[in-house]
Specification:
single chain; mainly alpha; 10 helices; 2 strands; ABC2_TM; cell membrane; ABC-type transporter activity
Length: about 250
Amino acid sequence: MSTATSPAVAMLRTEGRLMLREPGAMFWIVFFPTILLCVLGAIPSFREVSDDLGGVRVIDLYVPIVVLLSAIMASLQSMPAVISGYRENLVLRRYATTPARPTQILMAQWVIHGAGILAGSILAVTVGRLVFDVSLPGSPIAYLGIFVLAVLANLSTGGLISGLAPSTKASAAIGTVVFFPTMFTAGVWVPVTVLPGLLGDVIALTPNGAAALALDEAAAGRMPDMLHVLVLLAWTVGLGALAARYFRWE
């Protein structure tokens, strides 16, 4: 093992052990989205086919939405609190005296929270299939590709907040301000596919709006609209670059 990779691996192991000691964070990332899916699925009308939705059910639309919700919870609520807490408690300053680089702790947090998002998403898709008879994605490769881009875009947003926030209170405030609009654009309150006119067009230009629409298309067995893919890709690259640029030890 090279000296370049040793600090990154050691940091990943350490951060993973620390995350396992915080079951509360894992609850919101892994289990809460599926609990919300079950609550919505208990509404009889949500399990009925709707002509207004193109012959699908509301519950069918909500499986991709809760997948995005898992990414949002991890990226905007959990990760910024962890990293800004490290900065506030001078943990990052101690890291700065080691061979570790700033991007390595950021990547470690992305890997750990990404694993939590993956677990939560698999749980949501499985429960949707077994409990509510939601079909598995018709285009699984496209669905997986959009999922990866959506997770990276959300984690990059959280990374940018983590880099800019000087304290846990600041990260909580910024995260909350971003959290609710992000949930709206992901379709948590109203599925993006039913938003009218200009509002729908604007939402489609946001990372989670584009992701929600692309996931719906892949779930239905269609190739996602290239515009949605390009929007999501642009946000992922742009936010990722900003997160790496502005991450700091102190």
